[in-house]
């Protein structure tokens, strides 16, 4: 058989192979449903509806959800024990390289009474790590998110320095770094917590006024401290609950109610002006 004959036979075999397939496709085409213009429009409408529903999901929703680790980190501050040594601030600055004039946490004070019956109240404050954190919602670059245990943290690889988080925080707990132009806040020292340690401020406090840990664990330090306070009929309060952010910091003692009005608000940050000597004349009778 010549080469030409082989090519011709190959072509015939190829055609014969395609013939049954063509018959199958013809039968399959007859079995397909007829799609009308109305049907097509209805499908498009359903697709548009599904797409619209997807678009209605807030972009921050995923970042508001903490990893499913079964933990719920929170704080208990016993202001009855705090005597204003500022050790928590110093340890925080040292641990996180906080520049002069800026604070991740700050202790605000208020004098009460009239000499010689006078007292000074102290209120250690930091990020409340809100369950419904407004800073996460307004962050345009998606840098603010929930870490393990619900810790609200900043991803510095993508923080653009927009500053909207500062405007949204009802506790003034975020500041813009003057060099990096990025948002800085308390992150529960998660680099320490991951290693089984507490945030730097907690073991530094000589009065043991600060307690941190897993609120879901009844044996944790924070849970036991809160339980002891409740057993002693001490009321546990939170600050600015009307903001509906569901903060995860509780306070014992009168300082929270007395000093709340002096704390920074939306668009503000902890400031060295809080320690201004001229504030010493501000006394509540």
Overview of the molecule:
By secondary structure, the protein is an alpha+beta fold. The chain folds into 2 domains: 16-56, no CATH class; 61-284, Alpha-Beta Plaits (2-Layer Sandwich). It has helices spanning 3-31, 37-56, 61-64, 87-96, 134-138, 164-168, 190-193, 201-204, 221-231, 255-259; strands at 73-78, 106-114, 117-125, 144-146, 152-154, 175-176, 183-184, 210-214, 236-237, 249-252, 283-284. Strands 8-1-10-9 form a 4-stranded mixed sheet. It has a 3-stranded mixed sheet with strand order 3-2-11. A hairpin with a 6-residue loop joins strand 6 (175-176) and strand 7. The longest helix is centred in the N-terminal third of the chain and has 29 residues, at 3-31. The radius of gyration is 31 Å and the shape is globular. The model is unreliable at 2-22 and 24-53 (pLDDT under 50).
Search tags:
2 domains, Alpha-Beta Plaits, three-stranded mixed sheet, 16% strand, four-stranded mixed sheet, disordered N terminus, 34% helix, 11 strands, single chain
Quantity of strands, as a count: 11
* CATH architecture assignment of the largest domain: 2-Layer Sandwich
Task: Tell me, briefly, the overall form.
Answer: globular
Order of helices and strands: HHHEHEEHEEHEEHHEHEEHE
CATH topology of the largest domain: Alpha-Beta Plaits
User: Distance between termini?
Assistant: 118 Å
**Level-1 CATH class name of the largest domain:** Alpha Beta
Mean pLDDT figure: 85
- Summarize the main sheet: 4 strands, mixed
Total of helices: 10
| Structural class label | alpha+beta
């Amino acid at each position: 058989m010549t080469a030409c004959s082989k090519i011709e036979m190959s072509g015939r075999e190829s055609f014969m192979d395609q013939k049954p397939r063509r018959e199958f496709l013809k039968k399959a085409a007859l079995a397909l449903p007829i799609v009308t213009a109305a049907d097509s429009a209805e499908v498009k409408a359903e697709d548009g509806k599904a797409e619209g529903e997807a678009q209605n999901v807030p972009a921050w929703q995923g970042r508001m959800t903490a990893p499913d680790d079964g933990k719920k980190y929170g704080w208990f501050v016993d202001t009855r024990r705090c005597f204003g040594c500022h050790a928590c601030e110093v340890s925080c600055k040292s641990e996180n390289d906080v520049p002069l004039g800026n604070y991740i946490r700050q202790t605000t004070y208020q004098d009460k009474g009239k000499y010689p019956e006078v007292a000074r109240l102290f209120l250690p404050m930091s990020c409340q790590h809100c369950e419904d954190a407004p800073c996460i919602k307004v962050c345009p670059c998606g840098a603010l998110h929930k870490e393990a245990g619900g810790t609200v943290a900043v991803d510095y690889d993508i923080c653009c320095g927009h500053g909207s988080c500062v405007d949204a925080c009802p506790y003034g707990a975020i500041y813009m770094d003057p060099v990096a132009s990025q948002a800085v806040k308390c992150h529960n020292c998660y680099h320490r917590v991951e290693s089984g340690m507490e945030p730097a401020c907690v073991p530094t406090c000589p009065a043991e006024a600060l307690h941190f840990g897993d609120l879901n664990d009844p044996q944790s330090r924070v849970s036991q401290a809160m339980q002891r306070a409740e057993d002693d009929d001490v009321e546990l309060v939170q600050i600015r609950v009307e903001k509906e952010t569901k903060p995860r910091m509780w306070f014992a003692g009168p300082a929270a109610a007395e000093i709340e009005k002096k704390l920074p608000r939306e668009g503000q940050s902890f400031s060295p002006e809080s320690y201004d000597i001229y504030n010493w004349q501000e006394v509540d009778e």
